[in-house]
Structures are given as C-alpha cells and as structure tokens.
Amino acid sequence: MKQTASKTWLIHGQEVTEQQIVSAILRRDSYTTKEFLYRQCYPLFSAIYNKYYTDCDNVFEFINEIYVYILFPHKETGHCKLQDFGYRCSLTMWLKIVAENFCHQLFTKKRDLSEDNITPSDRFAFECDSLQSEVKALNMQDLHKILSMMPCERYCRLIQLRYVEEKTNEEVAALYIAR
Predict the structure, then answer these.
(1) C-alpha 179 chain-centroid distance
(2) What is the pLDDT along the chain (179 residues), one digit of tens a residue?
(3) Whole-angstrom Cα distance, residue 86 to residue 84?
C-alpha cells in the first residue's frame, strides 16, 4: 500500500480515496484500518511517539490510543473526531495534528496531576539542572564508554569537565584558555 497522486491510496491493489478510507474506518472495517493506520501511517505515528510524551509502551499501543481517540464520540454532539474531519487538508496531516494535540493534552494532564502532588519540599528537585541529574544517574562506566566513542576529543573533554567533574562554566573556560 503506498500513496499515489491526488489523495488516493493503494490498498489491496485498488486505489482508494481518503473519503473511502474515512468511511471504512468509521464502519470499523478492520482490513482498511490496519492497512492505513497501522501500516501506511506507522512512520507518522512512530515519529510522533518518539517526539512527544505518551503513556504508551510502543508505537502500536500509541496508534490504538489515537484510534480510540478519533472514534470516541463527544458528549455534546455525539459525533467522533473522525466524523468531523472536513477534508480541508490531507487525512495524514489531520492525523498528525490530532495525534500531536492528543500528546499535548496528555502531557498537560500529567503535569497538572504531578503539580498537585508536589509538596513545598519537593520543589528543589525540579529546580536542579536536568542534564546534571541524568549524568549522575548514569552508570559512570557507561558514561566513560560513550565519551570515548565521541569523534571530537574537544567536545568530549568539555562534557567531561562540565558534567562529570562538575566544573563551572568559568572553570572550564579557564582550563581551555590556559592551554
């Protein structure tokens, strides 16, 4: 299945329009849904999954979440998001926008929930430099292995001085000026 010109898709050897794909997904046509969402749109969903926060363990679980999200009816209208797709843009562009909005909403909910559970004494943990915290958490042996694999020795040494040896920017600069 691959995309052809003028918003038609090749599914099971037949050219299918986006209107036909939307109609098939709304009818819960499992073959078209799997071919389009899980195969053809996999790279799109994979990129979004890798870029944004989700509670999902893998891309297929993320696609499942988006599938439910676009087919779950609104309380007020009784229509699902896919029924409201107006063909003003391509179906894949619309799916990208919907998936990114889903991720933003999920992140906002998660952030709001975590902020509600923070006590004043917990605030210090969020003020720490995240890169420094992550470096400290790494296994130092692995860190040294990663640094040794870096092609630029200068950057490797800068990272080592700043984040491993925890020198200030001024101290690192002084060491490089002294060279």
Answers:
(1) 42
(2) 444 444 788 887 789 999 999 999 999 999 999 999 999 999 999 999 998 877 788 999 999 999 999 999 888 888 899 998 988 999 999 999 999 999 998 888 877 776 655 554 444 444 445 555 554 555 566 667 777 777 788 877 888 887 777 888 888 888 877 76
(3) 6
